[in-house]
Predict the structure of Fructose-1,6-bisphosphatase, cytosolic.
Amino acid sequence: MDHAAEAHRTDLMTITRFVLNEQSKHPEARGDFTILLSNIVLGCKFVCSAVSKAGLAKLIGLAGEINVQGEEQKKLDVLSNEVFIKALISSGRTSILVSEENEQATFVEPSKRGRYCVVFDPLDGSSNIDCGVSIGTIFGIYLRKDDSEGTLNDVLQPGKNMVAAGYCMYGSSCTLVLSTGTGVNGFTLDPSLGEFILTHPDIKVPKKGKIYSVNEGNAKNWDEPTKKYVERCKFPEDGSSPKSLRYIGSMVADVHRTLLYGGIFMYPADKKSPNGKLRTLYEVFPMSFLMEQAGGQAFTGTGRALDIVPTTIHQRSPIFLGSFEEVEEIKSLYAAHESKTL
Ligand SMILES: O=P(O)(O)OC[C@H]1O[C@](O)(COP(=O)(O)O)[C@@H](O)[C@@H]1O
Ligand SMILES: [Mg+2]
Ligand SMILES: [Mg+2]
């Protein structure tokens, strides 16, 4: 490492200092969010190190259990879940936790309870774990009025009520992308310092994009607007060049690329999965929150994703998110279909 070059970098802003600066903008802040986030960051560092050593540490493969989604849990799904549950409870700032890997919500005991509710996908992109392709962790945060026990209604809220959302991608580098409602910032883990450093300040998703991202293996079951949109990506009617298809199969990685390069990520509803595949609370909401904060859009096929009022903690929702103009085109195709003019 060229320490001289490092030393000259003026923007050596760690995520902790960044959040403390944000906190100073809120005179009423008590520091609870900063403490909660520092425990989430600790969890991400722990999982990042486990993922990078997975092959060596026998963390590849199945854990032998089936989760509430009916999916075979991977060893890293289980480990990441335990790490984040511990990190969130030991922050002393949470009251209700919803994890993809736990059938029931976790209600934190009074002595360790705080005002925040955290919904999270401890390990996203599980199908890519064993082949070392980028995976991640996704989280969304709600703030409750008080630190009483609370009820499920405290998490069954529209995504627009979240106070923060983020993801951590475990890829060629470990990148944590965060929004506290005033824009989106990206931090890269410097393994030699063990610090997340601000590397992507104020991320703005390009208005248009040249990339579409969807599992085309589901195409035969798609509805007309989705088929029409993908058709246009491949055979543009305006003579422009076709879009490129990129699909990693890890939502975190596909959304991260979309946020930086523009384009669109889709997991539409189809005849086989009438609500799509991705879970509203801990996949669709956090990613939609980030995309809107970066100037993009997030649409379900019937409305704004962040307006959904969830009824169950593991429900699924179709999702189209990304560059403003790409999602606008999908919205107009659904509107046309709605008015039978498609
Ligand atoms: O294999 P498919 O049907 O394209 O689904 C891929 C999608 O499923 C997921 O892997 C689901 O998330 P989990 O791995 O957390 O269960 C997403 O990351 C990804 O976008
Ligand atoms: Mg997931
Ligand atoms: Mg998962």
In short: Residues 211-341 form a domain with the D-Maltodextrin-Binding Protein; domain 2 fold (CATH 3.40.190.80). The CA atoms of residues 45 and 194 lie 8 Å apart. The chain has two domains: 7-200, 211-341.
